[in-house]
Structures are given as structure tokens and as C-alpha cells.
């Protein structure tokens, strides 16, 4: 597959937001689980750009502002007319009180605490603070971050949706879109159900969905992805490896959804990996390319913390996956029979 090929987020709005088929997720550059030096971060961003990647995603959460700042340092070296940039709103980064520590998965980061705020003022403040860290006056895609029950619980999700719709958060997003300060609005979440709910209530251009449409999971085929096709809403697919297991295989300590993989998942991945091996194809290559078989999915965004990891992602993306591999996975009941595969999409386009 050609990672530099671009797909439009949607066609209906005429806002001309396009994404390379592989993007770059910057969570690792926020020191996710391990420290990345400034020099290594900049080298990694440059390696992604030099490889032809033109879509970069970031967020205030990633390193409590560190990832956005690092992207901002790199931007002057990029042709911004060819770049598509997204960030997220809904998290305010406030100074910690003396002695206060905010547990985070990010190491060696600024001493900040997170306050969730999806009101009009919260969205606007979050947006302006992101622009300051990025050193720019606009971004292409602005997404609500983690507004789902997985972050807030069911009662918390209901409260955050109330802030969004009753206290002006959605109005802030639409004003920014209408003013041209952003070209598209959406949400970056870990569950497809909240995306479907948002689509029933408002006009969104796309969603960054992490880990929910993969070689292991195709439940969104039931209702959500058909809704996206009907409404011309694009999907940015994060977490194509389901937190790691589709990259490592069913090894000891393999992780699924940020936790140790349960036995039934390990067994299913073992069976998928065997079908891949029968076709002399690495599991990770099939996992990275599979989501792009669906016409609603516009890009996949694996992360990287080093130039070597960028080059590995590129090489994995460019592997030729035999068409027979997909059909054998379907025959074995390891892939839904109605799941579109990359070759089918390319042949139809």
C-alpha cells in the first residue's frame, strides 16, 4: 500500500481536509511510558515527514502539553500547506497545587493536573492553549477528547454531554469551524458507541476511533460504520494493534486494551497469526492494513518514538498482503464475512 496516497475526510462539506493513508500519532512523543529526548522527538517527527506522512495528530493529554510543544517546534520545518494537523479539546491543563501529583502514563512531564471541561468556555480555552503550544493560529481538525463513558463512567458521560450541548461546547466547535479556524470537527475516543450517539445529535465531520475496528474487533460494522458511509463521515483509526497484541502476537505479557490479554484473546490472536504465517505475512502487517479496507476509514495512525520505529511502520505498511489471507481468515471465522478488505476497496475505487 502507498502511505502517501491521500483520502478526503469527507466530501459533503467542501472543506478539503485530506489525510495520507498512514498518519503519525504523537502520544509516544509525550513520553508515554518512557522518556524521549527532545532531539529524538524532533528526529522522529522529521523521519515521519521525510517518509511522506502528511497527517499528524496530537493532544494536550500527551505528555501534559509536551507532545503539542514538540510538534510546534517541528512545524516551521514542514510545508504547512501540505500538512493536515489535528489536536483535541476538553482537557484543561492547570498548575498543580503544592504536593499534588496527578497519576499519568506519561513520565518526565510538566507538573500539571487535568480538568475536563466541555463547556463553551472550556472548549475555547483548551483550543487557544493548544494553539499557543503548537505555535500556530489554526489547526485542520479539532476533536473532543475522551468524552465517553470509558473515561467518565456512564453518569459522567451524561454530564459531559450535557456540558457539550446545553452549556455551549458544541456551539464553540461550530463557531470555530464557521470562522475557518478549524476545517473539521469530531471526537477522539475509545468507543464507537459514543461516536454513534454524537452523530445522532449533531453535525460532525469525522472521528478518531482507537482500537475498535481491527483484526480482533469489527462490531462497528453493525450500525456505526454504515452510518458513517451514509452521512459521509470519515474515520481516523488509532490503535490498530489493540494496545500491542496485534503487533507482538500472543507472547507472554501481550497487552490488549492497555491490560494483559485474557486467554480467549491470546488464543484468537494465535489462530490469526497462524493464518498470516501460512501466507508468509507478518501479523503486524495484516493488522496495520486491514482497517483501510473499509471505505469509511481514511487513515491509520500508529505511533512511534524513534526514527527507527517510523521506518518500521513504513515498511510494515508497504508489505503486500495476499488477498487469500483475508479470505482464509473469513473462512476460519476469524474475520467477519462482511468486512471489506483493502484490495476490494482499491479495486472498487
Question: Can you describe what's shown?
Answer:
The chain has 349 residues and is an alpha/beta fold. The model has no long low-confidence stretch (mean pLDDT 95). The longest helix has 18 residues, at 149-166. The protein has an 8-stranded parallel β-sheet with strand order 3-4-5-8-9-10-11-14. A two-stranded antiparallel sheet has the order 1-2. Helix 1 packs parallel to helix 11 and helix 3 (120-134) crosses helix 5. It is built from 13 helices and 14 strands.
Main sheet: strands, sense, barrel? 8 strands, parallel
Task: Using the coordinates shown, work out and report the CATH topology.
Answer: TIM Barrel
SSE pattern, N- to C-terminal: EEEHEHEEEHEHHEHEHEHEEHHEHHH
Shape: globular
Count, helices: 13
* Biggest sheet strand line-up: 3-4-5-8-9-10-11-14
**Nearest-integer average pLDDT:** 95
Structural class: alpha/beta
Extended strand count = 14
Q: Topology of this structure?
A:
Elements: E1 6-8, E2 18-20, E3 24-25, H1 38-50, E4 55-57, H2 66-74, E5 84-89, E6 91-95, E7 112-116, H3 120-134, E8 141-145, H4 149-166, H5 169-178, E9 184-189, H6 192-201, E10 206-210, H7 224-231, E11 234-238, H8 245-248, E12 255-256, E13 259-260, H9 263-278, H10 283-289, E14 297-300, H11 307-318, H12 323-331, H13 342-348
Parallel strand pairs: 3-4, 4-5, 5-8, 8-9, 9-10, 10-11, 11-14
Antiparallel strand pairs: 1-2, 6-7, 12-13
Helix pairs in contact: 1-2, 1-11, 3-5
GO molecular function, one term: oxidoreductase activity
Protein name: Aldo/keto reductase
Domain NADP-dependent oxidoreductase: 22-331
